[in-house]
């Protein structure tokens, strides 16, 4: 996925829309803060998601952090490669390290999410 | 802002992320904890341990004061020997775990950074009429730990003393770049290695030289995963003022017969109490980490508490140390750890989790 074309949540998840399906992942900035990812807990296929609600956890040696669904809909795919190799999230956060695919709820948009430019401003403001 | 060692800027220039530890701004990692951990197990890692308290004891009653506050027997130490022991309160609880050094010109003690002021005050309070002067040279010195199978070779001609000629847990005063320094074959990672103490002014030069020779800078993150794999206790976790050395499995560092010391009577009484929780190692089935504070369960009942936990990079398992009721402490006992509301299966394993290969 091309980071410039994605939309971003304040909580550092990205969303890439193709038709009515959104691929979701974590940004490079977020994974660089984490390092040493050992375990990722993701929802099951079929589970509903609500934008802004927690939907999983990412655990590193140093800490556990909640993952937040950027969009409202239903989980239709989960990246099960992450079970055996959670480091994919760090190695390829916009590609092979994707987390879930969500089928957007009827009428749902990504307008509440930031553009790449807005997200870049946010992380710059966070002092990094 | 915490205290800073003379290597503070050096750490930043190497990309370190800093964290507060015991009142000091210390590097937690430069790259990743996993890579730094691996560097120590495979080659040589370099740690700034200047934050640890370095105390000196001068005068004819130096040994007597040490013996009064220390659980191990310092009187049988030979010159150059380094010995681990505890300083206890009157209830037998641990005030700190320390290393005592017998140098040719006097005794010294290295204490945990967060306990430095506490131990200095304790020594002062219990000095009595003894003829001894306790000094604190922490801020005038830098201490580097070089740890790993290649550490000794890397440090062979670094100072005037080849550390491979030292016995394990022995040290010698020598020279570094024309100034006096102290070298000991000690460490806290479960690997062989060296600790070097130099005057503060030589600190940066020492670290530059060690990095040039191939030692990988490592932070507190790796220090924690390494010591945990080696089942070494960390003050504030496995050791506190309420936990005694015997229940911590450190009875080997307590010599009841050496003479009286603060806490001895209490320890003799506590020894008789078979109900005290004891330290065990846990290996979890899954990858999720049981961190300090997590309850340990047996058939749904709480039987203890985790004191340290991580995902061990060398052993590739989620490991923890915990205190559990003696009835649940046998190796092989099936337990569980409450990890954020979910019971994660675990079993008691023997300590240490990791032992370095002996050549």
Relevant CATH superfamily of chain A = RNA polymerase II/Efflux pump adaptor protein, barrel-sandwich hybrid domain
Averaged pLDDT of chain A, please? 95
Instruction: Write down how many β-strands of chain A occur, each being a DSSP E stretch of 2 or more residues.
Output: 9
What is the H/E string of chain B? HEEHEEHEEEHEEHEEEHEHHEEEEEE
The best one-word shape of chain A is: globular
Query: What's the alpha carbon Rg of chain B, rounded to whole Å?
Result: 20 Å
Strand tally of chain B is 19
User: Beta-strand level of the residues of chain A, as a percent range?
Assistant: 25-35%
Q: Give the termini separation of chain B.
A: 44 Å
| SS-derived structural category of chain B | alpha+beta
Portion in strands of chain B: 25-35%
Kindly report the spatial arrangement of strands forming the biggest sheet of chain B.
Answer: 10-11-12-9-3-13
Low-confidence stretches of chain B: none
CATH class of the largest domain in chain B: Alpha Beta
| Largest sheet: number of strands, sense, barrel closure of chain B | 6 strands, mixed
Strand order of the largest sheet of chain A: 1-2-3-9-8-5
């Amino acid at each position: 996925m091309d980071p410039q074309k994605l939309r971003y949540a304040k909580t550092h998840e990205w969303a890439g829309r193709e038709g009515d399906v959104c691929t979701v992942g974590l940004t490079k900035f977020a994974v660089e803060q984490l390092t040493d990812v050992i375990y990722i807990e993701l929802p099951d296929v079929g589970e509903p998601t609500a934008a802004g609600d927690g939907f999983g956890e990412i655990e590193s040696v140093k800490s556990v952090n909640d993952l937040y669904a950027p969009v409202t809909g239903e989980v239709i795919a989960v990246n099960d490669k992450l079970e055996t190799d959670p480091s994919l999230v760090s190695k390829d956060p916009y590609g092979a390290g994707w987390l879930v695919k969500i089928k957007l709820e009827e009428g749902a948009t990504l307008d509440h999410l930031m553009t790449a430019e807005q997200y870049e401003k946010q992380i710059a403001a966070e002092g990094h | 802002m915490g205290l800073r060692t003379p290597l503070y800027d050096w750490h930043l220039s190497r990309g370190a992320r800093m964290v507060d530890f015991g009142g000091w701004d210390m590097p937690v990692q430069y790259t990743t904890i996993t890579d730094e951990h691996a560097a120590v197990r495979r080659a040589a890692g370099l740690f700034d341990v200047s934050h640890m308290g370095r105390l000196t004891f001068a005068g004819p009653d130096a040994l007597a004061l040490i013996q009064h506050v220390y659980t191990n027997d310092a009187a049988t130490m030979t010159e150059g020997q380094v010995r681990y022991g505890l300083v206890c309160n009157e209830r037998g609880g641990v005030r700190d775990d320390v290393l005592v050094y017998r140098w040719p010109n006097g005794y010294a003690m290295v204490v945990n950074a967060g306990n430095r002021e506490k131990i200095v005050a304790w020594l002062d309070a219990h000095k009595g009429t003894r003829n001894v002067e306790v000094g604190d040279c922490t801020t005038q010195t830098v201490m580097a730990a070089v740890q790993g199978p290649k550490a000794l070779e890397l440090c062979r001609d670094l100072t005037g003393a080849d550390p491979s000629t030292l016995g394990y847990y022995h040290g010698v005063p020598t020279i570094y770049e024309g100034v006096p320094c102290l070298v000991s074959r000690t460490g806290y990672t479960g690997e062989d290695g060296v600790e070097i103490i130099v005057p503060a002014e030589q600190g940066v030069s020492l670290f530059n030289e060690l990095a040039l020779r191939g030692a990988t800078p490592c932070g507190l993150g790796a220090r924690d995963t390494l010591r945990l794999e080696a089942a070494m206790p960390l003050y504030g976790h496995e050791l506190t003022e309420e936990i005694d050395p015997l229940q911590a499995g450190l009875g080997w560092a307590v010599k009841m017969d050496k003479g009286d010391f603060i806490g001895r009577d209490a320890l003799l009484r506590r020894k008789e109490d078979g109900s005290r929780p004891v330290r065990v190692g846990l290996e979890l089935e899954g990858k999720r980490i049981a961190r300090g504070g997590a309850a340990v369960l047996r058939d749904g009942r709480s039987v203890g508490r985790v004191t340290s936990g991580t995902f061990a990079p060398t052993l590739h398992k989620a490991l923890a140390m915990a205190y559990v009721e003696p009835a649940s402490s046998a190796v092989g006992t099936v337990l569980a750890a409450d990890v954020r509301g979910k019971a994660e299966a675990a079993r008691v394993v023997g300590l240490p989790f990791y032992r370095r290969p002996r050549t």
